[in-house]
Amino acid sequence: MNIIDVKRNAFAMPLTSPSFPPGPYRFVNREFLIVTYRTDPDALRAVVPEPLLIDAANPIVKYEFIRMPDSTGFGDYTESGQVIPVTLDGVHGGYVHSMYLNDEAPIAGGRELWGFPKKLASPQLRAEIDTLLGTLDYGPVRVATATMGYKHRALDTAAVLAGLLAPNYLLKIIPHVDGTPRICELVRYFLEDITVKGAWAGPAALELFHHALAPVAQLPVLEVISGTHLMTDMTLGMGQVVHDYLA
Asked: How far apart are CA 106 and CA 117, in angstroms?
């Protein structure tokens, strides 16, 4: 293979059999369980990178379980993690702090393209009789359990859509071959072409358990504020660098 062929075909690793295809990435019947909770503001400050700002007077975390049965290039998988409400230049958005999922293709694609903080684990989201149940296991160890009353109250889909259209932020880190940082960037992305098929609220509970390699409990649950259940179609937009830490 000559140099021109390498450059022409170099989209993702490995060169001759990339772990994921080129986008765009469309998600059909993407289902969310989101438990919003209050946490320790000092714990938030310790994990949210500048220039993003948290609201110290209202230290909130959104713990999410997301079921994705029909995802372009990625197939059928589930993920779970934490999103922290932040502002950048006065604009409200969300910083993706942690993500755990059970499919190699979106782990590779998410990390290499955008900088999603994805790790391999075993999340599940399902209806259990009258309860929407989300669980996250890291190996054999239970890390998170969320429960919500199933479709107790319908929500205004227009308000839900407005929230999904807000910017999202990631910290993309790729090391050099000598182990020093080669890329260290704050990335912004948006969800696009969103259809909210349904949105519901209900009573919710969340338990987080300490694990050395899945430290979701470092943002402790002090008070559960709300539970939200969504059914959507959407496209994951490509990213934009908004801050280069190495510049």
From this structure: 11
